[in-house]
Amino acid sequence: MQINSLLIFFLIFIFFAAIVQIHIIEIAFVKLGLTPEEAATIVLGTLLGSVINLPIYSVAAKENHHLVISESQKLLWETFQPTRKGKVVIAINVGGCLIPVSLCIYFIFLQKLEPIKIIINTLAISALCYKSSRLIPGFGVGMPVFLAPLTAALLALLIDPEHAASLAYISGVLGVLIGADIFRLNEIASLGAPVASIGGAGTFDGIFITGIIAALLA
Protein backbone atom coordinates (compact mmCIF):
# COMPACT_ATOMS: atom_id res chain seq x y z
CA MET A 1 0.00 0.00 0.00
CA GLN A 2 2.82 2.35 0.91
CA ILE A 3 4.62 1.57 -2.36
CA ASN A 4 1.46 2.36 -4.36
CA SER A 5 1.11 5.69 -2.55
CA LEU A 6 4.71 6.60 -3.31
CA LEU A 7 4.25 5.65 -6.96
CA ILE A 8 1.12 7.82 -7.25
CA PHE A 9 2.93 10.73 -5.57
CA PHE A 10 5.88 10.33 -7.93
CA LEU A 11 3.63 10.31 -11.01
CA ILE A 12 1.75 13.40 -9.79
CA PHE A 13 5.08 15.15 -9.17
CA ILE A 14 6.30 14.32 -12.70
CA PHE A 15 3.01 15.57 -14.17
CA PHE A 16 3.13 18.94 -12.40
CA ALA A 17 6.85 19.33 -13.12
CA ALA A 18 6.12 18.84 -16.83
CA ILE A 19 3.26 21.37 -16.70
CA VAL A 20 5.52 23.97 -15.05
CA GLN A 21 8.29 23.36 -17.60
CA ILE A 22 5.89 23.69 -20.54
CA HIS A 23 4.50 26.93 -19.07
CA ILE A 24 8.02 28.35 -18.70
CA ILE A 25 8.77 27.50 -22.32
CA GLU A 26 5.55 29.19 -23.47
CA ILE A 27 6.55 32.35 -21.56
CA ALA A 28 9.98 32.16 -23.22
CA PHE A 29 8.50 32.17 -26.71
CA VAL A 30 6.15 35.03 -25.81
CA LYS A 31 9.17 37.09 -24.72
CA LEU A 32 10.77 36.33 -28.07
CA GLY A 33 7.88 38.00 -29.89
CA LEU A 34 5.11 35.40 -30.26
CA THR A 35 1.54 35.72 -28.99
CA PRO A 36 0.50 33.39 -26.10
CA GLU A 37 -1.62 31.36 -28.56
CA GLU A 38 1.26 31.04 -31.02
CA ALA A 39 3.64 30.09 -28.21
CA ALA A 40 1.30 27.36 -26.94
CA THR A 41 0.90 25.97 -30.47
CA ILE A 42 4.67 25.98 -31.04
CA VAL A 43 5.37 24.20 -27.74
CA LEU A 44 2.73 21.55 -28.43
CA GLY A 45 3.96 21.09 -31.99
CA THR A 46 7.57 20.82 -30.80
CA LEU A 47 6.79 18.18 -28.19
CA LEU A 48 4.61 16.11 -30.50
CA GLY A 49 6.96 16.65 -33.42
CA SER A 50 9.95 15.36 -31.44
CA VAL A 51 8.77 11.79 -32.13
CA ILE A 52 8.17 12.37 -35.85
CA ASN A 53 11.05 11.91 -38.29
CA LEU A 54 10.57 12.73 -41.97
CA PRO A 55 12.85 10.53 -44.13
CA ILE A 56 14.80 12.36 -46.83
CA TYR A 57 17.28 9.72 -48.05
CA SER A 58 19.22 6.67 -46.90
CA VAL A 59 22.87 5.58 -46.92
CA ALA A 60 24.42 2.14 -46.76
CA ALA A 61 25.43 1.06 -43.26
CA LYS A 62 29.09 0.12 -42.98
CA GLU A 63 29.54 -3.64 -43.17
CA ASN A 64 31.42 -3.91 -39.89
CA HIS A 65 28.71 -2.12 -37.92
CA HIS A 66 25.52 -3.73 -36.75
CA LEU A 67 22.27 -1.78 -36.69
CA VAL A 68 21.18 -1.55 -33.06
CA ILE A 69 17.39 -1.32 -32.80
CA SER A 70 15.67 -1.22 -29.42
CA GLU A 71 12.05 -2.36 -29.14
CA SER A 72 10.86 1.22 -28.50
CA GLN A 73 12.79 2.50 -31.55
CA LYS A 74 11.41 -0.28 -33.70
CA LEU A 75 7.80 0.29 -32.61
CA LEU A 76 7.94 4.07 -33.01
CA TRP A 77 9.95 4.21 -36.23
CA GLU A 78 8.08 1.41 -38.02
CA THR A 79 4.80 3.22 -37.31
CA PHE A 80 5.87 5.78 -39.90
CA GLN A 81 8.69 4.20 -41.89
CA PRO A 82 9.91 0.56 -41.90
CA THR A 83 13.58 0.11 -41.04
CA ARG A 84 15.73 -0.91 -43.98
CA LYS A 85 18.18 -3.73 -43.60
CA GLY A 86 21.72 -2.57 -44.26
CA LYS A 87 20.59 1.06 -44.52
CA VAL A 88 20.69 4.09 -42.27
CA VAL A 89 17.78 6.42 -42.95
CA ILE A 90 18.63 10.14 -42.81
CA ALA A 91 15.61 12.08 -41.57
CA ILE A 92 14.53 15.51 -40.36
CA ASN A 93 12.95 15.70 -36.92
CA VAL A 94 9.81 17.86 -36.94
CA GLY A 95 10.10 19.12 -33.35
CA GLY A 96 13.87 19.50 -33.26
CA CYS A 97 14.54 20.83 -36.76
CA LEU A 98 11.57 21.78 -38.93
CA ILE A 99 9.72 23.90 -36.35
CA PRO A 100 12.82 25.61 -34.82
CA VAL A 101 14.25 26.48 -38.24
CA SER A 102 10.89 27.95 -39.28
CA LEU A 103 10.97 30.06 -36.11
CA CYS A 104 14.50 31.20 -36.92
CA ILE A 105 13.37 32.45 -40.34
CA TYR A 106 10.42 34.22 -38.70
CA PHE A 107 12.63 35.95 -36.11
CA ILE A 108 15.12 37.04 -38.79
CA PHE A 109 12.41 38.92 -40.69
CA LEU A 110 10.64 40.09 -37.51
CA GLN A 111 13.72 41.68 -35.94
CA LYS A 112 15.46 42.65 -39.21
CA LEU A 113 18.79 41.38 -37.91
CA GLU A 114 22.02 42.15 -39.75
CA PRO A 115 23.03 39.05 -41.78
CA ILE A 116 26.72 39.38 -40.89
CA LYS A 117 25.95 39.13 -37.16
CA ILE A 118 23.83 36.04 -37.70
CA ILE A 119 26.57 34.44 -39.82
CA ILE A 120 29.34 35.18 -37.28
CA ASN A 121 27.37 33.88 -34.31
CA THR A 122 26.08 30.81 -36.14
CA LEU A 123 29.52 29.84 -37.47
CA ALA A 124 31.00 30.17 -33.98
CA ILE A 125 28.32 27.95 -32.41
CA SER A 126 28.55 25.47 -35.29
CA ALA A 127 32.29 25.06 -34.75
CA LEU A 128 31.79 24.68 -31.00
CA CYS A 129 29.07 22.04 -31.47
CA TYR A 130 31.15 20.09 -33.95
CA LYS A 131 34.10 19.99 -31.56
CA SER A 132 32.03 19.11 -28.48
CA SER A 133 29.66 16.56 -30.06
CA ARG A 134 30.34 12.83 -30.18
CA LEU A 135 28.96 9.90 -32.12
CA ILE A 136 27.21 7.44 -29.80
CA PRO A 137 26.74 3.95 -31.32
CA GLY A 138 23.09 2.87 -31.40
CA PHE A 139 21.90 6.34 -30.41
CA GLY A 140 23.07 9.19 -32.58
CA VAL A 141 24.98 12.40 -31.92
CA GLY A 142 25.39 13.52 -28.32
CA MET A 143 26.69 16.77 -26.89
CA PRO A 144 26.57 18.81 -23.63
CA VAL A 145 23.02 20.14 -23.32
CA PHE A 146 23.74 23.66 -22.00
CA LEU A 147 26.96 24.41 -23.91
CA ALA A 148 25.47 25.78 -27.14
CA PRO A 149 22.57 27.74 -25.56
CA LEU A 150 24.79 29.50 -23.01
CA THR A 151 27.55 30.27 -25.52
CA ALA A 152 25.04 31.56 -28.07
CA ALA A 153 23.56 33.85 -25.41
CA LEU A 154 26.95 35.25 -24.36
CA LEU A 155 28.09 35.87 -27.94
CA ALA A 156 24.76 37.51 -28.81
CA LEU A 157 25.15 39.92 -25.88
CA LEU A 158 28.61 40.88 -27.13
CA ILE A 159 27.73 41.19 -30.83
CA ASP A 160 24.25 42.73 -30.70
CA PRO A 161 22.91 43.55 -27.19
CA GLU A 162 19.78 45.19 -28.61
CA HIS A 163 18.63 41.99 -30.37
CA ALA A 164 20.45 39.51 -28.13
CA ALA A 165 17.42 37.27 -27.49
CA SER A 166 16.54 36.66 -31.13
CA LEU A 167 20.18 36.38 -32.19
CA ALA A 168 20.87 33.85 -29.41
CA TYR A 169 17.92 31.72 -30.46
CA ILE A 170 18.75 31.78 -34.17
CA SER A 171 22.47 31.09 -33.80
CA GLY A 172 21.88 28.52 -31.04
CA VAL A 173 19.39 26.50 -33.07
CA LEU A 174 21.21 26.71 -36.40
CA GLY A 175 24.59 26.18 -34.75
CA VAL A 176 23.50 22.93 -33.09
CA LEU A 177 21.85 21.60 -36.25
CA ILE A 178 24.80 22.50 -38.49
CA GLY A 179 27.67 21.66 -36.16
CA ALA A 180 26.38 18.57 -34.36
CA ASP A 181 24.19 17.03 -37.06
CA ILE A 182 24.82 18.26 -40.62
CA PHE A 183 28.63 18.43 -40.34
CA ARG A 184 28.60 14.80 -39.20
CA LEU A 185 26.36 13.34 -41.89
CA ASN A 186 29.37 11.74 -43.62
CA GLU A 187 30.02 9.74 -40.42
CA ILE A 188 26.41 8.74 -39.97
CA ALA A 189 26.68 5.22 -41.41
CA SER A 190 28.87 4.14 -38.49
CA LEU A 191 26.32 4.98 -35.80
CA GLY A 192 24.67 1.56 -35.69
CA ALA A 193 21.19 3.10 -35.52
CA PRO A 194 18.31 2.53 -37.97
CA VAL A 195 17.72 6.27 -38.39
CA ALA A 196 19.91 9.36 -38.07
CA SER A 197 17.61 12.26 -37.34
CA ILE A 198 18.69 15.89 -37.83
CA GLY A 199 17.44 17.66 -34.70
CA GLY A 200 16.47 14.39 -33.06
CA ALA A 201 17.84 12.47 -30.09
CA GLY A 202 21.06 13.96 -28.75
CA THR A 203 20.57 17.48 -30.09
CA PHE A 204 16.85 18.05 -29.44
CA ASP A 205 17.39 19.04 -25.78
CA GLY A 206 20.02 21.61 -26.69
CA ILE A 207 17.73 23.18 -29.27
CA PHE A 208 14.78 23.20 -26.86
CA ILE A 209 16.75 24.83 -24.03
CA THR A 210 18.14 27.45 -26.43
CA GLY A 211 14.69 29.03 -26.57
CA ILE A 212 14.43 29.30 -22.78
CA ILE A 213 17.90 30.81 -22.30
CA ALA A 214 17.43 33.22 -25.21
CA ALA A 215 14.21 34.47 -23.62
CA LEU A 216 16.09 35.41 -20.46
CA LEU A 217 17.90 38.03 -22.55
CA ALA A 218 14.63 39.65 -23.71
Report strand %: 5-15%
Task: Please give the oligomerization state of what you see.
Answer: single chain
**Secondary structure: number of strands:** 5
Mean pLDDT, to the nearest integer, reads 75
Helix and strand run: HHEHEHHEEHHEH
Total tally of structural domains:
1
What value does the Rg take, in angstroms?
19 Å
Tell the overall outline: globular
User: What ranges have pLDDT less than 50 throughout 5 or more consecutive residues?
Assistant: 1-5, 64-82
List the strand order in the largest sheet: 1-2-5
The description of the largest β-sheet is: 3 strands, mixed
Quickly count the helices.
8
Classification by helices and strands = mainly alpha
Q: Whole-Å distance between the termini?
A: 48 Å
Helix content range of the residues, please?
Answer: 55-70%
Question: Which helices and strands, and how do they pair?
Answer:
Layout: H1 2-31, H2 36-49, E1 53-60, H3 71-80, E2 87-93, H4 94-111, H5 115-132, E3 134-136, E4 140-142, H6 147-159, H7 164-181, E5 195-198, H8 204-215
Parallel strand pairs: 2-5
Antiparallel strand pairs: 1-2, 3-4
Helix pairs in contact: 1-2, 1-8, 2-4, 4-7, 4-8, 5-6, 5-7, 6-7, 6-8, 7-8
